[in-house]
Write a structure and sequence with these properties.
InterPro entries: Metalloenz_LuxS/M16, Pept_M16_N, Peptidase_M16, Peptidase_M16_C. One of its GO terms (molecular function) is metallopeptidase activity. Belongs to the peptidase M16 family. By secondary structure, the protein is of the alpha+beta class. The chain is built from 16 helices and eleven strands. A six-stranded mixed β-sheet has the order 1-2-6-3-5-4, with helices on both faces. It has a five-stranded mixed β-sheet with strand order 7-11-8-10-9, with helices on both faces. Helix 4 packs parallel to helix 9. The radius of gyration is 23 Å and the shape is globular.
Length: 439
């Protein structure tokens, strides 16, 4: 789930000097189309078994939103060989932990076990794929779980509907226009047969990548994978042909209301390219320059010096098909949303007209170097990265070479993406207000 606006604003990287170790891995395909990636690290007796499915909120029927996230819950219900409600008991009783998460682009399941339980992890994930039990009892149970999650994280959370309101204005054709958690009335209206059909279409080996990372014996694990996953039938091929968005050519002005907030916010959102494009990397660096930490340009100017904002920030929400670059601010005292937006715009114009300093550029490089090292600091993180780079970027090797892309981004490129994407006629300006009014 998306974090709320305040949490997003506080994200920062620690600028420490570090050196990345090369992640070694082996990858291959099973006959049924499942991609397999193995990473051996015998430094600690721990193993991560994970499966990422290429199915997210964008793959849903517009009248049945929330299915992908719903399955994140539903597929823990049980299988033909794992009794209902026993999944977590089996994992914890064997010294393990597990979790899952869903985005607009993919769904990810994983277990972390002592390495002597690697076979257990593989068996459980193969069970989830081959023998899930999708019945009305499970659907009804998880329906209530998801509704409670939505109440907690969206409906009753301050700024919880922030992304929902941005997305619906930024995307008119592409399925990024709805939220990952979806609409509860869609889940209520869905039939059991619709849930079963969704599972049959997307939860197939040729739409998945299996990653095993940690303290493993590679030949033994290969045999286990063949034994447990090899017999699973290949599914029908999935074709995606999502509609393209028309360019935004004039500023979109909108308002949204949230009964859970007392301080309004102003948001400027710009549509940007896929996470796979070089420009997305430059936009990542720009967002860090503007708002990562108390020494960043927006924070220092508007929070520290001018004391116009309680919080201010920028972040680049890159996704598989498009990205959304977001600037936001929460005003302090009597400062108006319009005045705050004008001040933020001034900083954008500066970046468009002037190169960032060499010193700031080097700080950015240090931050991204450290982030890169930290992402591969555990076998759990490595497993996630291997799956993500293969599935969403189509290049597993990015686990070792992505940092080279950031290193190669120049100050001129950072300036160019600001000039290319962050223009007033290419954006949404959303006033996010603390009380409901007649509209």
């Amino acid at each position: 789930m998306k974090k709320n606006i305040l949490a997003l604003a506080s994200l920062c990287l620690v600028g420490l000097s570090a050196t990345a170790q090369e992640v070694k891995y082996e990858e291959y395909d099973l006959d049924n189309g499942m991609h397999v990636i193995l990473h051996q690290d015998n430094s600690a007796p721990v193993v991560t078994t994970s499966v990422m499915y290429h199915v997210g909120a964008k793959d849903e029927n517009p009248e049945r939103t929330g299915f992908a996230h719903f399955f994140e819950h539903l597929l823990f219900e049980g299988t033909e060989n794992i009794p209902r409600g026993e999944w977590f008991t089996i994992v914890t009783s064997n010294g393990g932990s597990n979790n899952a998460n869903t985005t607009d682009d993919r769904t990810y399941y994983y277990e972390v076990f002592p390495s002597n339980s690697v076979e257990l992890g593989l068996w459980m994930e193969s069970e989830r794929l081959m023998h899930p039990i999708i019945n009305q009892v499970g659907v009804d149970t998880q329906n209530e779980v998801v509704k409670e999650e939505k109440r907690l994280r969206v409906d009753n959370a301050p700024y919880g509907k922030f992304f929902e309101n941005v997305k619906k204005h930024m995307f008119k054709k592409h399925p990024y226009r709805w939220t990952t958690i979806g609409e509860m009335e869609h889940l209520d209206a869905a039939t059991l047969e619709e849930f079963q059909a969704f599972n049959k279409k997307f939860y197939v080996p040729n739409n998945a990548v299996l990653v095993v990372a940690g303290d493993i014996d590679v030949p033994a694990v290969k045999k286990m994978i063949q034994d447990y996953f090899g017999p699973i039938p290949r599914g029908e091929e999935i074709t995606r042909n999502f509609p393209k968005e028309d360019p935004i050519t004039e500023q979109i002005n909108a308002k949204a209301y949230d009964a859970n907030i007392q301080i309004p916010a102003v948001v400027a959102a710009y549509r940007t390219p896929s996470m796979k494009e070089r420009d997305a990397y430059a936009l990542d660096m720009l967002s860090n320059y503007l708002s990562d930490g108390k020494s960043s340009k927006l924070y220092k100017k508007l929070v520290d010096e001018k004391k116009m904002a309680l919080q201010v920030g920028a972040f680049n929400n890159s996704q598989e098909d498009y990205g959304t670059y977001i600037l936001f601010g929460l005003p302090l005292g009597d400062v108006t949303l319009n005045d705050l937006m004008n001040e933020i715009d001034e900083e954008i114009v500066k970046v468009q007209n002037e190169l960032i300093s060499e010193r700031d550029y080097q700080k950015l490089q240090n931050k991204f170097e450290n982030q890169f090292v930290n992402s591969n600091a555990s076998v759990e993180g490595i497993a996630n990265s291997l799956a993500r780079y293969y599935m969403l970027y189509g290049d597993t090797a990015l686990i070792n070479k992505e940092i080279e892309i950031y290193r190669s981004i120049t100050r001129e490129e950072i300036q160019e993406v600001a000039k290319k994407y962050l223009n007033t006629n290419q954006r949404l300006v959303l006033e996010y207000l603390p009380e409901e009014k007649d509209q």
